[in-house]
Amino acid sequence: MNLNSISAFQDNYIWVLSNDEGRCLIVDPGEAAPVLTAIKKNHWQPEAILLTHHHNDHVGGVKELLQHYPDLVVYGPAETKNKGATKIVAEGDNVIILGNEFSVFATPGHTLGHISFFSFPYLFCGDTMFSGGCGRLFEGTAEQMYQSFLKIDALPEETLVCCAHEYTLANMKFAKSLLPHDSFINDYYNKVNDLRAKNEMTLPAILKNERHINLFLRTQDPDLIAVINRETNLQQPEARFAWLRAKKDNF
After folding, report:
1. In CATH, what is the architecture of 2-163?
2. 45 confidence band (pLDDT: 50, 70, 90)
3. What is d(CA 210, CA 207) in angstroms, rounded to the nearest whole number?
């Protein structure tokens, strides 16, 4: 399988998985025009769409794509039923697309019905995990997002985290502000800063690396706990996760 990205809006990525025959699936098409352009350029034959949640920058292009390709199967959570999904899926479901099995698991937090799709090594997690960060809690709670992160963290270390936004540099600036002497964070910040200076993308992220540089995966880390304890004494990792998300909201 070949992983491709299509830029959309200001900082969205629409992911496309294609095989050597040109058959493909499309993930979270927030707008149709750049997808249609890429399909024509690459001579792709789209067979399915995966939707992670209902926000318009992830589903806004579905209707137009279906006008061009009416046979597309659109897999999505219940919250996308009115956004173009034709096949509702939920945690525990497995779907076969292009000969690959994708497992579906619930990752609420950003929205209540948010789901992720995993077929090793590809994880399509929408706005749940970003490189160096996590999605805003628009509908769910920090506890829900923490549990979603535990599910992602249980995946193999070589998992490619295909998140939907180019937020990495901002996330690493936040991480650096809390742990300014952390070598992993500093090295990754410098790498990301160089990539963005050349207008190059920082994704997909590798889960093995995220375990070192993503503070939201380090709620049991003694160095981070020491920083949090300067302000408050939180015994539970999910409480530390909530503290981090609140700090990031105001960073």
Report:
1. 4-Layer Sandwich (3.60)
2. very high
3. 5
